[in-house]
């Protein structure tokens, strides 16, 4: 501690004992004792700014010396132990494995409700003037991740939907379709795969158009065929991959159904149903003899009513 000045100490005592006495203002700072303490020992980085790597086997003072935190002896000290390792005997996941039936034809879809879509539109996070696909829903964080089979539209909060939207999803409930069309919008269901979902979110695949969905543009006219060809050329420039179409009967029948607003419903002829197996009642003629139908099939090829499209 630095020595105090006798004059200043007497002056401060005089001030405390006799309040009527005054002291020169320039002596006030000298009345209190000051220490020039160093703060260098207290300096540190901001929390999370510096992560020090733990060095093991560098002596007992670090806390990770000698055995380096592995303990004494055993397989866990000498190397790694595989997950599920049970000492060399039959693993538990084989003895007591997953039991029960495995569903091979189940679909995994991310649900989205109409009230959330309207809330996102009101917040300016979705543009109702453009088609809303799974890419816009995922990029705007309206849904957190997209399942392997796409998105399913549900009708919760349908009374809150007031904006007409054009939405393209994998599937949609009947009540959701009715609510969107009541508001002046449209719903289109189309086929997606796990690979397609990943490439669409990466911007490497068209989320709407495929080869079969362009048939409606180039059905009968030469001009329409030229437009479709130009669209395909432009698509190959913009996207690296082409959006696939369904191949299984189950998916084909779903997306050929107008009730589901399937994108392949334009391929169904008027008066015919979406089924690829059952003939639509009243569309085919049945002959009384079995041989007549067989002979007609041999002579004239496949019957008109047996064609898919």
Automatic annotation (TrEMBL):
Example GO BP: translation
The record places domain Large ribosomal subunit protein uL15/eL18 at 111-188
Q: Which cellular component, as a GO term, is one annotated location?
A: mitochondrial large ribosomal subunit
Q: Any idea which UniProt keywords this protein has?
A: Ribonucleoprotein, Ribosomal protein
Q: Which InterPro entries match?
A: Ribosomal_uL15, Ribosomal_uL15/eL18, Ribosomal_uL15/eL18_sf, Ribosomal_uL15_bac-type
Tell me any Pfam family this protein matches.
Ribosomal_L27A
> Which segments show compositional bias classed as Basic residues?
69-79
UniProt-recorded Gene Ontology molecular function terms? structural constituent of ribosome
* Ribosomal protein recorded as keyword: yes
Q: Region (Disordered): which ranges? A: 53-86, 274-309
- UniProt family annotation: Belongs to the universal ribosomal protein uL15 family.
State the protein's name: Large ribosomal subunit protein uL15/eL18 domain-containing protein
Native source organism of the sequence: Meristemomyces frigidus
């Amino acid at each position: 501690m630095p020595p105090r000045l006798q004059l200043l100490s007497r002056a401060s005592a005089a001030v405390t004992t006799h309040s009527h006495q005054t002291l020169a203002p320039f002596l006030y700072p000298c009345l209190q004792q000051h220490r020039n303490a160093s703060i260098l020992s207290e300096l540190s980085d901001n929390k999370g700014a510096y992560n020090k790597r733990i060095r093991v086997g560098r002596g007992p003072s670090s806390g990770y010396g000698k055995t380096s935190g592995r303990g004494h002896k055993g397989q866990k000290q000498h190397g790694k132990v595989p997950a599920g390792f049970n000492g060399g005997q039959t693993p538990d996941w084989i003895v007591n494995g997953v039991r029960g039936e495995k569903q091979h034809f189940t679909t995994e879809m991310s649900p989205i409700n109409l009230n959330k879509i309207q809330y996102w539109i009101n917040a300016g996070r979705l543009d109702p003037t453009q088609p809303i696909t799974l890419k816009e829903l995922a990029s705007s964080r309206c849904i957190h991740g997209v399942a392997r089979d796409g998105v399913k539209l549900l009708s919760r909060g349908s009374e809150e939907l007031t904006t007409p939207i054009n939405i393209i999803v994998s599937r949609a409930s009947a009540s959701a379709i009715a609510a969107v069309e009541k508001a002046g919008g449209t719903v289109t269901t189309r086929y997606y795969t796990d690979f397609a979902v990943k490439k669409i979110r990466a911007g490497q695949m068209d989320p709407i158009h495929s080869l079969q969905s362009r048939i409606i543009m180039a059905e009968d006219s030469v001009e329409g065929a030229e437009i479709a060809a130009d669209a395909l050329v432009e698509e190959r420039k913009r996207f690296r991959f082409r959006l696939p179409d369904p191949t299984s009967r189950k998916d084909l029948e779903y997306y050929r159904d107008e009730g589901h607003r399937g994108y392949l419903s334009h391929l169904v002829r008027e008066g015919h149903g979406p089924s690829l197996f059952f003939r639509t009642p009243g569309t085919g003629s049945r002959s009384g003899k079995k041989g007549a139908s067989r002979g007609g099939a041999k002579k004239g090829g496949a019957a008109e009513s047996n064609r898919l499209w």
